[in-house]
Write a structure and sequence with these properties.
Bound molecules: N~2~-(3-carboxypropanoyl)-L-arginine
Distance between the termini: 48 Å
CATH class: Alpha Beta
Helix content: 25-40%
Radius of gyration: 21 Å
Oligomer: single chain
Strand order of the largest sheet: 2-1-15
CATH superfamily: Succinylarginine dihydrolase
CATH architecture: 5-stranded Propeller
Largest sheet: 3 strands, mixed
CATH topology: L-arginine/glycine Amidinotransferase, Chain A
Number of helices: 18
Structural class: alpha/beta
Shape: globular
Length: about 450
C-alpha cells in the first residue's frame, strides 16, 4: 500500500537577513526596522526547526536562499557597470530600491507557491504555482527563482507540474500557500481546499494595509491545477487591518481540523457552511475557534499563535501544534495553547520553537515552510540532496558558521564585501544541495 506524507520544505535563511521594514501591514517588520540582525543565528534557528521535524519522523526538505543583492534586477532598472559599481550607484541614489534588492525574504517558503497534491489535482500530478508576490517590491523579485528552485527539487514532469507564476498584474496578486488550507480525513485522501482571498481584482480597496491576495488569483490557480473541492472564503478586512497580512497569521489547518480566530473570516458562517458541504461524505470537519475575548487581536499578532505548524506525528493520534516561543511568552496566548492541549479536541499537545530572528520580520514557524503532500513514489522522485538528514544538518550548520555574519546593520547591506561573501556561500551551497553549477544568476553570467 502506498503511504502518503506531508513533507515540509523550509526556506534556508540567506546571508543578507536584515531588518529594513519593507512590508507595510506586517507590524513586526515595521516595528523592528533599523535593528541589527544575526543572519548566522537565523540560519541556525531555521535548521534546528527542520531538525525537530526530522526527529518527529516527518519528511523535511531544504529550499536554497535566492541570490541577494539581486544585481540582475538592479541592472534591469538601469544601474550599470561592474557589480560593485551597480551596488554603489543604487545605494547612493535610490536606497529604497537597494534595500529591496537585498532582502532575504525567500526564507518564508509558505509564500513560495500554492500546492495541490496529486489526490486533488485534475491530472493526478502534484501542481505548484510559484507566487508572484506583487504587493511588495522586495518579494516580487522571488517568483522566477522560486520556479527554478521548485523545478530542481521536483524535476520529474510525469509526477510534478511546476507552473509559471500568474501574470504580473495586481489583478492576480498572489502570496501562495500562506492563504491556502487543505483539510482531509488523512493526507492521501481527497481534500477540501480553502483558498482565502483578501480583495477582488476590480474592487476599490480602501484598507489601511494592503490585501495581498486576490480572489481572481486563486480562481486561476484552482483552474490550472484542476484543484477539486475548492471553497473561496474571504479573509476578514478586520484581520488585515489588525496586522494579519496573510491568512496564516489567523488560521492554520490540517487533516480535519481548522484552527482559527473569530476575526479570521469575513463571513464565518458561510465559510463553515461551504467547508461542510465540500467535505460531505469524506470527513467531518472540526472547527476550533478562538474568540477575541480569549485572545485579542493585538496578542494574536504579538504571539503568532496561529502561525504554528499543525502536525500529524507518526504514532500520535492527536495533532501537535508547533508554536513560536513568542506564544509561550504571551500570557494570554500561552493560556489558550495550554487549554487546547488539555481539552479533548483534535490538538493533543503543544511544543514551542525558537525562530526569533525570523519572527522579528513577521515570519513564524508556519511562514518558514511550504507543505507538500507526497506519495512514496513522489517523495522518492524529489532531489535527494535536499532531503534533510542529521548529516545535512551538520554540513549546513558548519557552512553557515563559516560563511555567515553574526551581526548585520541595515547600512552593512551596502558593503561590497557582503556581495562577494554571499556569492561564495551560495556557490558552495549549490554543491552541498546538488543544484548544478548554473543555478544562480551570478553563476550563469560569470
Ligand atoms: O512578506 N516579511 C515577510 C514575512 C512573511 C511571512 N509569511 C507568512 N505569513 N506566511 C512579508 O511581510 C519583511 C522584510 C523586511 O522588512 O526587511 C518581510 O518581507
Amino acid at each position: 500500500m502506498t503511504s502518503v506524507v506531508e513533507a515540509n520544505c523550509d526556506g534556508l535563511v540567506g546571508p543578507t537577513h536584515s531588518y529594513v521594514g519593507l512590508s507595510p501591514g506586517n507590524l513586526a517588520s515595521t516595528r523592528n526596522a533599523g535593528e541589527v540582525s544575526n543572519p548566522r543565528g537565523a540560519a541556525l534557528e531555521g535548521l534546528s526547526k527542520m531538525r525537530r521535524l526530522y526527529d518527529l519522523g516527518l519528511p523535511q526538505f531544504v529550499l536554497p536562499p535566492h541570490e541577494r543583492p539581486a544585481i540582475s534586477f538592479l541592472k534591469q532598472i538601469g544601474f550599470f557597470g561592474s557589480d560593485e559599481a551597480v551596488l554603489e550607484g543604487v545605494w547612493k541614489t535610490a536606497p529604497a530600491l537597494a534595500a529591496a534588492a537585498c532582502s532575504a525574504s525567500s526564507m518564508w517558503a509558505a509564500n513560495a507557491a500554492t500546492v495541490t497534491p496529486s489526490a486533488d489535482a485534475g491530472d493526478g500530478r502534484v501542481h505548484f504555482t510559484p507566487a508572484n508576490l506583487l504587493t511588495n517590491l522586495h518579494r516580487s523579485l522571488e517568483g522566477a527563482q522560486t520556479t527554478r528552485v521548485l523545478r530542481r527539487l521536483f524535476p520529474d514532469e510525469r509526477r510534478f507540474a511546476v507552473h509559471e507564476p500568474l501574470p504580473a498584474q495586481p489583478h492576480f496578486s498572489d502570496e501562495g500557500a500562506a492563504n491556502h488550507v487543505r483539510l482531509c480525513a488523512e493526507h492521501g485522501a481527497p481534500g477540501v481546499n480553502l483558498f482565502v482571498w483578501g480583495r477582488e481584482a476590480w474592487e476599490h480597496w480602501e484598507g489601511r494595509f494592503p490585501a495581498r491576495q486576490t480572489r481572481e488569483a486563486f480562481e486561476a490557480i484552482q483552474r490550472r491545477h484542476g484543484a477539486a473541492r475548492a471553497v473561496f472564503p474571504r479573509q476578514a478586512k478586520a484581520a488585515i487591518a489588525g496586522g494579519a497580512f496573510h491568512n496564516d497569521v489567523v488560521c492554520v489547518g490540517t487533516r480535519e481540523c481548522l484552527f482559527f480566530h473569530e476575526r479570521a473570516f469575513e463571513d464565518r458562517a458561510a465559510m463553515e457552511r461551504d467547508v461542510r458541504a465540500a467535505a460531505k461524505g469524506l470527513f467531518e470537519p472540526a472547527f476550533v475557534e478562538i474568540s477575541e475575548a480569549e485572545l485579542p487581536m493585538a496578542d494574536l499578532v504579538a504571539s503568532y499563535l496561529f502561525n504554528s505548524q499543525l502536525l500529524v506525528v507518526p504514532g500520535e493520534d492527536r495533532l501537535l501544534l508547533l508554536a513560536p516561543a513568542e506564544t509561550r511568552d504571551n500570557p494570554r496566548a500561552h493560556a489558550v495553547a495550554e487549554a487546547l492541549a488539555a481539552s479533548n479536541g483534535p490538538i493533543g499537545r503543544v511544543e514551542y520553537v525558537d525562530v526569533r530572528q525570523s519572527m522579528r520580520n513577521g515570519g513564524g514557524p508556519a511562514c518558514l515552510r511550504l507543505r507538500v503532500v507526497l506519495t512514496d513514489e513522489e517523495l522518492e522522485a524529489a532531489n535527494p540532496a535536499q532531503h534533510f538528514t542529521p548529516g545535512l544538518h551538520t554540513t549546513l550548520a558548519d557552512w553557515a558558521e563559516r560563511r555567515y555574519r553574526d551581526s548585520l546593520k541595515p547600512g552593512d547591506l551596502a558593503d561590497p564585501l557582503l556581495l562577494t561573501e554571499s556569492r561564495e556561500a551560495l556557490d558552495e551551497l549549490t554543491q552541498i544541495l546538488d543544484l548544478g553549477g548554473d543555478f544562480y544568476p551570478f553563476q550563469r553570467t560569470a
